[in-house]
Design goal:
The protein is of the alpha+beta class. It has two domains: 84 residues; 217 residues, no CATH class. The protein has a six-stranded antiparallel beta barrel with strand order 1-2-3-4-5-6. The protein has a four-stranded mixed sheet with strand order 7-8-10-9. α5 crosses α11 and α8 crosses α13. The longest helix has 23 residues.
């Protein structure tokens, strides 16, 4: 194909008349019978008139070429792009089907790779995510504790004894006043653990408080929060682990962690942490039954705050208790006290 028009050299706005000869996906430009460039690859054809070449030239045809001719001059990849650019219901349906299939396949791969990714994930990255999340929470959810230093020291000494007896990673435990989360304890990815003043004042007994802390230690040791973060971050986490690109991953994962704590942990993770906590208490020579007693007291408190249901109905409700995504108080006590 040969056609006339004007062309523009690379980085130039000067218009020059000439002719273009196209052979498959390469072009030759002549002007005043001089060859300006020969057999240069075609990058794209836009508007059926503007031909962009690999050397930075642009040739504008005097007469637009037909769609059939345009496709003929592009390579297979460019033809596919051009096909997608032209809207039709058929093309939209094909593209949607391909996109949805890709999403399902990617989700399947990520879901079935989470355990392996978590196993490869460096502890120091997880700990940094936890510190970032704790810092974010501290700006809006936590205030300085009003508990006496002696009381905090007593609990910390016994909690550290549980950590030592079970060979767990050293974990910082902080105490805070919090009007936002009430009587509660939170385990951030890789630590730290936060115990609220309200929890200490409600449970009163050291053994009950330590049972709750053992539950949070189990979350950290089983890396439950990290599992949930990986499921959300997905491909970025895998790439960062394999390629060692940490900064963007840690920042993104920290933001995800804040949002995850708003909806708490999954019930499966909660049950696993409950049962692991029992083994921690046993190895530290503490009574495992104290955990069930702590659950009773926490659930009773939550139910008393509700006026829409009776205490018995509330106790069996799966939406009450420690968090809304925990098993119900009755269900937890059943498996915690069963032989």
């Amino acid at each position: 194909m040969k056609a006339s028009g004007v062309f523009y050299r690379k980085h130039s706005s000067k218009e020059e008349e000439g002719e273009i000869t196209i052979n498959k996906n390469a072009a030759t430009i002549c002007s005043a019978q001089d060859i300006i460039c020969r057999d240069v690859g075609i990058v794209s054809i836009q508007g059926s008139k503007n031909i962009y070449l690999e050397n930075g030239f642009m040739f504008t045809l005097s007469v637009a070429i037909s769609s059939e001719d345009e496709v003929f001059f592009l390579d297979k990849y460019q033809q596919k792009i051009r096909w997608l650019e032209k809207f039709s219901v058929t093309r939209a349906l094909v593209l949607s089907a391909v996109l949805l299939t890709g999403i399902f396949v990617l989700r399947f791969v990520i879901t079935n790779s989470v355990t392996a990714i978590v196993a490869m994930f460096p502890y120091k990255w997880e700990e940094q995510i936890g510190k970032n999340t704790y810092t974010s929470f501290s700006t809006f959810a936590f205030d300085e504790s009003n508990l006496p230093n002696e009381r905090i020291g007593e609990i910390l000494t016994q909690a550290n004894a549980i950590i030592a007896a079970n060979g767990l990673r050293d974990t910082e435990i902080y105490f805070h006043e919090s009007n936002l989360v009430g009587p509660n304890a939170l385990a951030f990815p890789g630590g730290p653990i936060v115990v609220t003043d309200d929890l200490v004042n409600l449970l009163e007994s050291d053994d009950l408080i330590l049972a709750v802390i053992a539950h949070e230690l189990a979350h950290i040791e089983m890396r439950h929060s990290l599992n949930q973060i990986i499921e959300v971050v997905g491909v970025a986490a895998l790439a960062s682990v394999l390629l060692g690109s940490t900064d963007s991953l840690i920042e993104e994962a920290s933001l995800v962690a804040v949002n995850l704590f708003a909806s708490a942990n999954s019930r499966n993770f909660e049950k696993e942490a409950d049962l692991v906590a029992l083994t921690y208490l046993e190895k530290a020579n503490l009574e495992p039954d104290t955990f069930a007693n702590a659950i009773r007291k926490l659930t009773q408190y939550t139910c008393e705050m509700r006026t829409s249901d009776s205490i018995d109905d509330c106790f069996d409700d799966t939406k009450t208790g420690w968090f809304s995504t925990h098993p119900s108080g009755a269900a937890r006590i059943q498996y915690l006290t069963s032989d």
